[in-house]
Amino acid sequence: MLTEWISWALRRWRQCKLHKLPRAQALGPLGEDLAARYLLRAGMRIHERNWRPSTGRGEIDIIASEGSILVFVEVKARTTDEFGAPDRAIGEEKRRHIASAARRFFRSHPEGPRLFRFDTVSIVWPGPLQASESAVVEHVRDAFFLPGVGPTPFAAHIADSLQARVDSEWNA
User: Fold this and answer.
1) Per-residue pLDDT for 167 more than 90?
2) What is the pLDDT of residues 112-125, one digit of tens each?
3) Based on the structure, what is the number of domains in the chain?
4) Residue 82: is its pLDDT beyond 80?
5) What span, in angstroms and rounded, lies between the C-alpha atoms of 99 and 60?
6) Which range has the top average pLDDT, 2-11, 72-81, 153-162?
7) Residue-wise over 42-58: b if at least 16 C-beta within 10 A, else e?
8) CB 35 within 8 A of CB 137
9) Does residue 4 lie in a domain region?
10) Residue span of the structural domain in which 124 resides
């Protein structure tokens, strides 16, 4: 009970502080807060937020799990989608930095889940930042794949199981 209250109080303090910042500076952290709430409501468990490896580059906005699958989430928030969806701003270099951070996460947490995927959450927030109901949230599961990151990419696991099923039906 006490930890829930402390968590609520810290979250409230952070939101009050962010609302005093210029809109452009507050949008990123508020977008990450909204994405975390969205993922929790979708049934995911949040393990880390804004995780950075002790060495190297890269940051992972949210590390969550969905069942036995570890999910690395990149959040992008914009005030308009006039120039395309926010997740279009996640270029190849950013993906490499996320993958590098994910590799370091696996090294520092060898006991963690063995399946993983990279998701994106795009937020278009045209209205006032105090009104999160004006934001449009889009969650893309398995948004991109980079080989050599960790033990078993979720997409590879699905592909292997589908191939095994096709092989068994074909040979039957």
Assistant:
1) no
2) 777 888 999 998 88
3) 1
4) no
5) 9
6) 72-81
7) eebebbebebebeeeeb
8) yes
9) no
10) 22-171
Instruction: Taking residues 24-44, report their average pLDDT.
Output: 85
Residues 6+ apart with CB under 8 A from 73: 35, 39, 60, 61, 62, 63, 64, 118, 119, 120, 121
The CA-based dihedral angle spanning residues 109, 110, 114, 118, taken in that order and rounded to the nearest 10 degrees: 40
User: Over the stretch 128-145, which tens digit does the pLDDT of each residue have?
Assistant: 666 667 788 899 988 887
Note whether residue 17 is domain-resident: no
Q: Is residue 14 part of a domain?
A: no
Provide the Cα torsion 148, 154, 160, 163; round to 10°: -130
In-domain check, residue 2: no
Tokens standing for residue 145: 């794949």
- Within 8 A by CB and 6+ apart from 40, the residues are 46
Q: Residue 68 is encoded by which pair of tokens?
A: 């036995």
